[in-house]
Structure formats: C-alpha cells, structure tokens
C-alpha cells in the first residue's frame, strides 16, 4: 500500500531558511527508505521578510487558498531584523493559524538522549510533558486599540478575549490528549486569583469538562507557581493546558529545561481536520546565528515527527524520532547551542543516513 501526501513548506525568515530545507531532506530520505510505501510532494512558499520587501505584505492576500488543499504545512520562522515583529508575526504565522482555526497548539518536551538539560535531577524518561496552548483567542485575540497616539494622553489596550466555545474546545482537546497518555494526568494552568473574569470562566469550564473525563486525574496551578513546579517537581507534571500567553511562556521554559530552544517542536492543529495543520520548531529566526550553518535542525525534525503522527503515519514517525535520538546521543553531532561544534548539514546528513540504514537493516 502506498500513501502520498502533499506538503507545503514555508521557511520564512532567518534560520527558518536553513532548518526547513533540512526537514524536507529528512522527509525525502524517509520516502526513499520506504521503498515506495510513502510519497511526498512538496510545494515551497517564499513568504516572509523578503516577500514583504518586494510586495508590501508577508504573504499574498489569497495565500491561504494555496495552502488549503495541502495535507500539512511545515513552517520555519517569521521574524526579520528590519521589520517590526508584530508585522511579521501577524502577517504570516498568525494569519495561517487563525485563518485555518488551528486552535490547539501542542508542544511536547522530553530530554533526548545525550542532551545535558538543566534538570539533572530528573532521571531519563521522567520528564515527559506535553503543553497544550490555546491558539485562537485569549491574550492574542488582537482586541484592543490605541488612541491619542503621540500625545501625552495616549492610551492603549490589549484585551484578553475568551469565549465559552473557545475554552470548552481546548479543554476537551487537552482532557482527550491526557486520556491518550499513560499517566492520564492533566494540569490546568490559570491566574484566576488576579484576573477575575475570563480566568474565572476558564476555571469553571475546566471543572465542567472534567466531568466528561472521570478517568483523567487533574489539578489546577497558578501560572507563576507552575514555573517553579516545572523546575522543582518536574515529574509531577504530564499534560498541561494553558492560555495563549501563559503557554507561550511556559513552553519556552520547557524547551530551555530540556536543553535548548533549538530542539523543541510544536504543532498548530485543527483537531476537526477542516484545514491543514501546521508544524514548526518553536524557536524564531535567530538573527545572531543566521546564515552561518549553526542552526540546530532537531526542533524541525521533531516537528516532522509530529506532522507524520498527525497524518496517521505512526511507523514513519517512530523511524524519524529514533534517528533523531540516535544522533542526539552522539555529542560529536551536537550543534553549538548544545555545546558542540556540528553544523546543520552534518546533523541533517547523520539523521538521513540513519533513516537510510533502517531500510538496509530491515532488508538484511
Ligand atoms: P529566537 O528563538 O530566534 O532566538 C533565541 C536564542 O536561541 C538565540 O540566541 C538563538 O541563536 C537561539 N536559537 C534559537 N533557535 C536555535 C536553533 N535552532 N539552533 C541554535 N540556536 C537557536 O528568539 P528571538 O531572538 O526572541 O526572536 C528572533 C526573531 O524571531 C524575532 O523577530 C521574533 O519575533 C521571531 N520569532 C518567531 C517565532 C515564530 O515564527 N514562531 C517564534 C519566536 C520568535
Ligand atoms: Mn514563543
């Protein structure tokens, strides 16, 4: 049986242009090793800062139409040293996330073999988190405005907008994900002590949805206390659900605790599968290292693993993850962010060779 998928690649800016081609190479190696069972067609979209300089926008107005028929999107990073961040972020990444209602942002964290994370007290395998980020509203709803710009009475607001439908669907998604994992454990992150409207509704809805999942154990944690718990009692956490802003911050902390921002993946998922979902490393454009071949491609490779899982290709996903873990276990294949001196290209080649070897081992 042969499966064929059509994949959109959007490298975007900075090191996105280095890690996304690397991710595509790994997928091509996987297809080659499958002996015809797996086939990918790629379409590459040159949107981002360069597109903005040429066309005055980060992506074409009808860009979503070009993506709509794809099975999945592999995204690099939006962020250019010469364009304000709110333009690059809202003009490309958020346009796709919101346009395709990818309301669940899923971010796994594990300490991969061979990687020296700050959480040394954690035995290998003890740290296995997945953070679910509400990805469609909340603090990033874009509700607000500025008045009296430039005058002494200038005022500005960013209103966190939470809807009952939006909170119910992310809670249900998180409880379902927790149920699918061995520990069946969910922590709901909140800040309802200080924010007494939307966050109180968030808590109420968590309690309401929990009744649909009597087999899932859950608790509630204030976001500030949660940062301390991630450092001091990491094994007490498993699945975590948080608002758009809270989860944005917690997941960078999670990535740093696991060793580097360069290895962490994420999926922007439309659980109803009305639209293509989008997978990306969580890091940004990394202006300080772009163009030097120093970018760690592991976050992109792990994102490819999530993409394959989303497509239902569990065996292919496992194969890529095994190749990634084989490579991280070897310190001579660590990039600079992990304390090594390997290049993007060397890490990519090693992962591709391991995938190719899988086939030879199977054939032998
Ligand atoms: P960043 O993730 O780009 O970089 C933070 C630090 O981590 C830098 O020192 C960088 O060198 C390092 N780093 C990140 N990824 C790495 C990798 N793969 N390998 C090795 N080192 C890596 O975050 P930033 O500096 O806050 O942001 C830079 C730009 O990226 C900004 O324009 C920002 O808006 C944008 N950004 C975009 C996204 C996105 O598109 N999803 C996410 C975060 C930041
Ligand atoms: Mn972030």
Task: From the structure above, extract its key features.
single chain; 364 residues; alpha/beta; Isopropylmalate Dehydrogenase; 2 domains; 10-stranded mixed β-sheet; two-stranded antiparallel ribbon; binds nicotinamide-adenine-dinucleotide; binds manganese (II) ion
> What is the topology, as strand order, of the major beta sheet?
2-1-3-12-11-4-5-10-8-9
Helix-strand pattern, N to C?
A: EHEHHEHEEEEHEHEHEHEEHHH
Low-confidence stretches: none
Q: Quick one: biggest sheet? A: 10 strands, mixed
Q: What kind of oligomer do you see?
A: single chain
How much strand content do the residues show?
Answer: 15-25%
Instruction: Give the C-alpha Rg.
Output: 21 Å
How far is the N terminus from the C terminus?
21 Å
Provide the CATH topology of the largest domain.
Answer: Isopropylmalate Dehydrogenase
Based on secondary structure, the structural category is alpha/beta
Q: Treating each run of at least 4 consecutive H or I residues as one helix, how many helices?
A: 11
Q: What is the strand tally? A: 12
Bound molecules: nicotinamide-adenine-dinucleotide, manganese (II) ion
Textual characterization of the structure:
The chain has 364 residues and is α/β, with parallel strands linked by helices. The chain folds into two domains: 206 residues, 3-Layer(aba) Sandwich (Isopropylmalate Dehydrogenase), CATH 3.40.718; 140 residues, Isopropylmalate Dehydrogenase (3-Layer(aba) Sandwich), CATH 3.40.718. The protein is 41% helix and 22% strand. The chain has eleven helices and twelve strands. The strands form two sheets. A ten-stranded mixed β-sheet has the order 2-1-3-12-11-4-5-10-8-9, sandwiched between helices. A two-stranded antiparallel sheet has the order 6-7. The structure holds nicotinamide-adenine-dinucleotide and manganese (II) ion. The site of nicotinamide-adenine-dinucleotide has 22 residues, from helix 4.
């Amino acid at each position: 049986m042969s499966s064929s998928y059509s994949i959109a690649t959007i490298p975007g800016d900075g090191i996105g242009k280095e890690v996304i081609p690397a991710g595509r190479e790994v997928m091509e190696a996987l297809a080659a090793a499958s002996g015809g069972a797996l086939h990918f067609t790629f379409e590459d979209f040159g949107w981002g800062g360069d597109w903005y300089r040429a066309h005055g926008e980060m992506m074409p107005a009808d860009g979503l139409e070009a993506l709509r028929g794809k099975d999945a999107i592999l995204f690099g990073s939006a962020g250019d040293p010469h364009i304000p961040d709110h333009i690059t972020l809202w003009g490309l990444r958020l346009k796709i996330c919101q346009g395709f209602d990818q309301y669940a942002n899923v971010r796994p964290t594990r300490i991969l073999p061979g990687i020296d994370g700050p959480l040394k007290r954690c035995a290998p395998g003890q740290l296995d988190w997945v953070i679910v980020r509400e990805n469609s509203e909340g603090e990033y709803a874009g509700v607000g405005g500025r008045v009296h710009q430039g005058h002494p009475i200038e005022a500005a607001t960013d209103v966190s907008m939470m809807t009952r439908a939006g909170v119910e669907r992310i809670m249900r998604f998180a409880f379902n994900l927790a149920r699918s994992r061995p520990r069946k454990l969910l922590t709901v992150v909140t800040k309802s002590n200080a924010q007494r409207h939307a966050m109180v509704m968030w808590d109420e809805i968590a309690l309401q949805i929990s009744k649909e999942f009597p087999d899932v154990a859950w608790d509630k944690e204030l976001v500030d206390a949660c940062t301390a718990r991630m450092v001091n009692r990491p094994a007490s956490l498993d699945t975590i659900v948080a608002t758009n802003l809270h989860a944005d911050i917690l997941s960078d902390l999670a990535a740093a605790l696991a060793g580097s921002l360069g290895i962490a993946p994420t999926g922007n998922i439309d659980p109803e599968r009305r639209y293509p979902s989008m997978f990306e490393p969580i890091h940004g454009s990394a202006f300080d290292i772009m163009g030097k071949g120093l970018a760690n491609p592991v976050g992109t490779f792990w994102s490819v693993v999530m993409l394959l899982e989303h497509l239902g290709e569990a065996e292919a996903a496992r194969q890529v993850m095994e190749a990634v873990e084989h490579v991280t276990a070897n310190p001579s294949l660590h990039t600079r962010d992990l304390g090594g001196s390997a290049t993007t290209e060397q890490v990519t080649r090693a992962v591709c060779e391991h995938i190719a070897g899988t086939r030879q081992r199977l054939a032998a």
